[in-house]
Design brief:
It contains 11 helices and no strands. With about 260 residues, it is an all-alpha fold.
Length: about 260
C-alpha cells in the first residue's frame, strides 16, 4: 500500500509540468479578460453571467480542455518518457497502477477548475458588478463542476490508455461531440457530457432565480433533465470509464517505441 500511495503522490507531482499549468493559466486569463471587458461596458446580470460565461466558455470549453490536457497525460507522460513498460512491470496489480495515476491527477484538475470558477466569479463581481455575493455564486456550482470534470477526466484517461494518439482524438471529440452534437436539437445531444453538465448547471441556477431562456425558437430551446438525474449520469460515466480504463490497462500489452 505504501508503494501504491507513493505512486499516487508521484503521479500528482509529475502532472505539475509548466506547459500544462501555462495552458490553464492562459485560458483563465482569456475568460477573465472577457468577463472584465464586458462587465465594464455593461454590468453583468446573474442570468447573462451564468448563460454566457459559466454555461458556455467555462463549462463547454474550459472544463473539457483542462481535463483533456491532464487526462491524456495520465499515461501519455509514460509513453513520452519511454517508461510505460517499466511502469506495467511493477509488483502491483496493473489495474491499481492505472487507478493511482488517475487519482494523482484528480486534486490538480479539481483545484484548477474550482479555482478558475472562483476567479471568474470574482472578476464578474469586481469588474462587472455581479449583483450576488461572490461565494454564493461560486458555491452553487461546485457540484456541477466537480461531477463534470471527474466525468471528463475519467473519459480522457481511458482514451489515453486505449489510443497512442489520444490527444488528437480527444481534441476531435471536444469539438465534434461536445461543441457540435451538444448543441444540436433532439436526442443526439444526450451523448455529450456537456448536456448533463448544463442540466446540473441550470438546476443549481434555480437557487439564484435563473432558468433557461424561453425567448428562442422552440427547436433550439434547451430540453434538460433533472439535476439529480444528470448528477447520477455524470457519476456513472466517471465510474464506468475509470473501470474501463483499469480493465483496458490490465489487459493490453504496451511497447515503449523509440
Amino acid at each position: 500500500m505504501s508503494s501504491w500511495f507513493y505512486l499516487v503522490y508521484f503521479s500528482f507531482r509529475r502532472q505539475l509540468r509548466p506547459r500544462r499549468l501555462a495552458v490553464a493559466l492562459l485560458l483563465f486569463i482569456l475568460i477573465s479578460v472577457v468577463v472584465a471587458v464586458v462587465g465594464v461596458e455593461r454590468s453583468w446580470s446573474t442570468e447573462h453571467f451564468i448563460e454566457f460565461i459559466i454555461g458556455r466558455p467555462f463549462c463547454r470549453f474550459f472544463l473539457p480542455v483542462i481535463a483533456l490536457t491532464f487526462g491524456t497525460a495520465v499515461l501519455g507522460d509514460e509513453r513520452e518518457d519511454k517508461t510505460l513498460v517499466y511502469l506495467s512491470t511493477r509488483p502491483l496489480p496493473r489495474w491499481s497502477l492505472f487507478l493511482a495515476k488517475v487519482l494523482g491527477s484528480v486534486p490538480l484538475v479539481l483545484g484548477i477548475s474550482l479555482g478558475t470558477l472562483l476567479g471568474i466569479c470574482a472578476t464578474a463581481v469586481v469588474a462587472g458588478g455581479l449583483p450576488l455575493p461572490l461565494l454564493k455564486v461560486a458555491w452553487v456550482f461546485v457540484p456541477t463542476v466537480t461531477f463534470g470534470v471527474l466525468a471528463y477526466l475519467a473519459f480522457f484517461s481511458w482514451l489515453g490508455a486505449a489510443f497512442r494518439n489520444s490527444t488528437l482524438i480527444g481534441v476531435a471529440y471536444v469539438f465534434l461531440v461536445e461543441f457540435f452534437m451538444g448543441s444540436v436539437p433532439g436526442v443526439l445531444k444526450q451523448v455529450s457530457i456537456s448536456f448533463y453538465i448544463r442540466s446540473m448547471l441550470y438546476d443549481a441556477a434555480g437557487e439564484l432565480g435563473v432558468a433557461p431562456r424561453e425567448d428562442v425558437p422552440e427547436l433550439f430551446q434547451l430540453e434538460l433533465i433533472e439535476g439529480i438525474d444528470a448528477a447520477l449520469v455524470l457519476v456513472s460515466t466517471a465510474a464506468g470509464f475509470l473501470a474501463l480504463g483499469m480493465y483496458w490497462f490490465s489487459r493490453r500489452e504496451y511497447r515503449d517505441l523509440t
